[in-house]
Amino acid sequence: MTRLVAVGIDSGSTTTKLVGVSADAALIGWRLESAHPCVEEQVARMLRDLRCELGAAEEMPTVATGYGRKLLTAVTKSVTEISCHARGVHACLKTAGTLVDIGGQDSKVIRIGAGGKAVDFSMNDKCAAGTGRFLENTAARLALPLDEFARRALAAVDDAPISSTCTVFAESEIISLIARGVPLDAIVRGLHRSMVSRIVTMIYHVGLVAPLMLSGGVARNPAVRALLAEATGEAVIVPEQPQLMGAYGAALLALELTRRPGEH
Asked: What's the CA gap between 28 and 19, in Å, rounded?
């Protein structure tokens, strides 16, 4: 069995992710759960489970990233999300370019250079618009599951403009549009386009360097992928496990701590 030698932890606002890597940097195991208020206890339990499944060296480095990384006192090191997402996506997709990472509470656009280094970035962490929470809240307001929410957005012929930059005000717009008899599919597509337009503004602020890559839980939303490609004119590339890229990048940084100077 391939042995676990380093772990990355992404303590996000909505989910907690752990990724384990082998000595050759392969992603060999992972855990993903909804974030718990007692995140340190949750991570300790998830780590025990991962070690039990894969086996581990007695002294194994752990690197934490994400919204709650400073709450994890038992880790070897803490690193920003920007560095970890850039490193993880670069290792997975084997290319530099522009990365959009849409999380539950924030969204990031990162220009990735050679070796997975973050060259420049823009981050929205002040408002839910442009984040996964924006889609979750509006889907709930319309009583639609997230998968149907995306399907309706793709099926719509037209979209109803949503001008509000705030989730609360967007909800008021939704109520008004429903009262005026605007088709639900058009409203849903308009909400997706509103979110994507904010992301595109961030992309051009950082500078779009192809390929355009997408990570985070929202990367699984086909409507977001389609509208992002339409707005930028670039095909959108998504890693196989988009939600794990921050934790994977953290694990790769943890792996470096096990190596002597000069080793690769």
From this structure: 8
